[in-house]
Please model this.
Amino acid sequence: MDLMDFGYYQAIAQRAEAAKFDSIFFADILTMSDDAAITGKVWLEPITLLAAIAGVTERIGLIATASTSYSLPFNLARQFSSIDHISNGRAGWNIVTTWLQAAARNFGDTREVSLDERYVFAEEFVEVVKGLWDSWADDAVIDDRVGAVYARPDRIRAIDHEGPQYSVAGPLNLPRSPQGRPVLVQAGSSNTGRDFAARHAEAIFTAHLEKATAQEFYTDLKARLVKAGRKPDDVLILPGVNPMIASTEAEAKRLVKELNESADPEAGRRTLSSRFGGYDFSHLPLDEVLSPDDFPHPDTVEASRSRAVMVVGLIERERVTLRQLLAKLAGARGHFTYAGTPEQVADLLEDWFQDGAADGFNVMPPIYPGMLDAFIDEVVPILQQRGLFRTEYVGATLREHYGLDRPPDGFDATD
Ligand SMILES: Cc1cc2nc3c(=O)[nH]c(=O)nc-3n(C[C@H](O)[C@H](O)[C@H](O)COP(=O)(O)O)c2cc1C
Model:
């Protein structure tokens, strides 16, 4: 498997589309992972990849991460609007506020930026991008070849944004895209992250090690939406699930154990440190039971605060050693890992879906392509039989797959 081979991604996207998935999502971090030389963990730039995948697929949604900390609003608005045009309305942007110090060094950024500041910057960034996406009315283009008029100037407007971070005149230099705006996805679960999501997100990725915290997150987020003047159905909450599937539960659990034991605990210790903003865990023995005191208080973590809350919460609940903690985080990085038969996996998804923990799932197969194939060939048919998953695409755009409204362009109606 060559991660520089487009064919690898094309095959996964076409497989997921054949199974009628809503979307395929490509994460991204703006630095080389420090174990890349060993693990080969390299990847193609996601927005470029989406453009290529758009050309070999027809219905599946195309979501990629892009950073509000190290991108410029005009460029990013143009890139995702272009993906939406190229894909006939299938683009989605996962908004991240990059917290990795290693990434900051790739942009000459030596500032000490707090979590709250990152979200303040992101707020302005997203407002500018939305303004640029709405800078052409849906009916601006008339394309009158005889009259030699492509668009009506009165239906295109500058945004003239002047803010603390950005000064952007606009308009965008291409017409409004098929979805109006690409779908806005977000994945921060801290208190500040949740408020940001309640204002802007249309789909939310979230990581939970247990159903109870997923239910708490779901209920809290839906309530924040209403407070922000939106409807609960305006956002889909999609917890990550990492399903190891086999013909018996014992076999599935054996595969998880084998996979986790192949993970390098020292690489895991470094990843854990980066999530806690570089906190040094090198003194902790691997096989002694951890205490919450071994960790900085999550409220003081300016990096991945919600992950810090999840890790310390796990240690408060369970007597785990560092090795066991790293094994839990190794594959799914804190998302729900489940090992079982196809029926058991289907039961789990149905239970979370029916019991207020999820509107859907971010399926993260622990092994590619094997566990994606197992999920598609053995779990999806069960969900379809239970009437829980589509058998055919009805819509053509990501918004239609998600059941989301198309945002109006904000222009006055023409006479
Ligand atoms: C499913 C999922 C996908 C994510 N993808 C990315 C990503 O591609 N790049 C990134 O830098 N952060 C990614 N994150 C991290 C979040 O953007 C965010 O930084 C993290 O959840 C901490 O946010 P918080 O401090 O508001 O809780 C992802 C998180 C989740 C749950």
